[in-house]
Specification:
It is a single chain. The protein has one domain (3-52). With 53 residues, it is mainly alpha-helical. The chain has two helices and no strands. Keywords: Membrane, Transmembrane, Transmembrane helix. The chain crosses the membrane at residues 28-48.
């Protein structure tokens, strides 16, 4: 497995954990949380795809 992909998975878990804490403070709904996570995943996959070129 590519080490960059492993790092991105770790960063995604770290981001989700941090976002969950912020979501509780700002009282985000589940739709806003899902939207932020989907956007984060798309951006991270795009960054990882650029490094594969």
């Amino acid at each position: 497995m590519d080490s960059g992909l492993i790092l991105l998975v770790f960063l995604a878990f770290l981001f989700a954990w941090g976002l969950n804490r912020v979501r509780r403070m700002l009282r985000f709904g589940p739709l806003a949380y899902a939207g932020v996570m989907i956007t984060f995943m798309i951006v991270m996959l795009a960054v990882w795809g650029q490094t594969m070129r």
